[in-house]
Amino acid sequence: MEKYSCERKVQVLEDGIDADLTICQKFPIVGFDCEWNSGRKVSLIQLSTTDNIYLVRVLSAFPEFLKVYLEDRSVIKVGVNVEGDIKLLANQFGCIVRSWVDLRNIAINNSHFTTFHATKLRSLEDELSTLEAVDPNNEELRAQNWIRRSNWRPKLGLDALVQACTSKALCKTSSARYKDNWEQENLSAEQIDYAASDASASLDIVLALSSAETFGKPVSKPSSPNDTYLSLCERYVEQRWKEKFGYSVLLSAVHRLCPEIDFYQYVTKPPKAASKRGGDKRPLKALNLEVKKDPPYLVSRKPLYENCKLYAPDGQLLCTCNRKKISWYVENGLATALTVREPGVPAAAKLNFEPSGRPSGSQDFYCLEKVNECCGCGRRDKLIRKNVIPREYRKHLPKEYKDRQSHDVVLLCPQCHRLGDIHDGILRESLAVEYGVPIDFRRRFERVDGTVMKVRSAARTLLNPKYTLPPDKRTTMMQVVEEYLGHEPSPEELSQARGLQPTTLSSDATDHGAEVVRRVLEGGQQNAFIRRWRTAFVEGMKPKHLPAGWSVDHRTRLSEQEFHRVEDVAGSRCYRVDDVMISHHDVEMEDVERPEIRTNSDM
To answer: In this predicted structure, what is the pLDDT of residue 521?
Structure first.
């Protein structure tokens, strides 16, 4: 591959020499980088415009003209790991760099860059699949291919970005860095070329990412950066680079572009025996590579959809539900069994009274039979419930947006569930930025009662069979409990004291999910918020086996009339079964346990 070379005019501004950088004001975007010695003392600052590169040496004092320029918010400074450089400048010289952009944030969200890596991934997968097709019984080859897949990870360093965006190789070897020599009196030609290339390459990456015509091609000398370049950078101004989140975004984007590739081996490590080069004498056949190892999720051992049917007295289908719910109505005389799936378990039943609500039609979501399969890949074993709107947000929504609403609970296998978690993390980070509520946001005002803490500690010690306490110590601890209760504790009271909670949260304690939902509700955006999560799920996972009737535009809440009927259960004897309200006025049920019917289907 052709070596990247700097074709701009290079000017070295020696230490202590005043200079005028007003010429740079014509360029709202500049490449930015710093060089330092082994003691991490910044010795050189590089700035690159479309025509010139300025290498400013800062050995004895930090020039005022440079401080003013770097703190100017109207000029965007682009580079890789810029945050590390600006921290050094702030600590050593008190210079607060403004309007900086880390190029990695632009790259992972750029369609040209993600398409480039999707193409590379397809090439790798074609190569490995071809090898496996030639010798399908070679377990050792399949194990080694798994290792190669798990090690696939796009590089996001400056040299890797240059190679992807300009099809040239940037020299970034350790011998070229000269980190211990940046304070020498005169910089060598190699050092000048190395420093100038870093700043120049940063600007060229922005120019390459701006359009399909420039991406992946050697960058020609551009005119002054226009609005296209500015719009590319402005979204990511002073946005920190987060390693795990960044790679999750890139991996998710590549996954969307390559839906035909099984990503399981790309996101999971191979078994230890397959990854060891030696020392493990177990045969590779013992690894059973054909059977994929599932991530550690709790899975259901019985079908989640049982598709029992409940009919109105006139024969109209009201809903599908599970056999436990339908059995309750039959056992309590509220419905008549129509068909029996197994002895004592009805598969369909007709109500003996008129329901107060009916579904919109036979094609209503809650009337359709549902298949117990992963909605992503179609797998029919080891299924897990997936909340399309994550529980950390959903639990804080008003009741009418979550009660008797199972539309946004789907089934996924462990592998698809893991990929779904990755996509959830991407939108979660976007919400954190949009609403100004960090993921680790906590606002908990705790009150600790020291007396209760002592009582609990004493009770736990007294009841612990492992401890053999001296008589005087046991008497002292018993007195602590007696003073708290006001009398000698019984064994039951001592056991209760062991579970006392000395810490209480104030009523306004909150976290990230609660705070985001609060701000969503303040803006009246709850419907858009729910549909946003549904859209992110569909676009990210590209599910091929969604339940019949599932839609992004499905209603997000119960109507006012339905919700008030649900809230008025005690007075009207209404029992909510899935999407309809069933009201019973004729049967006395004072001694009958009320069923727990909480969802619209058997989920």
So the answer is: 92
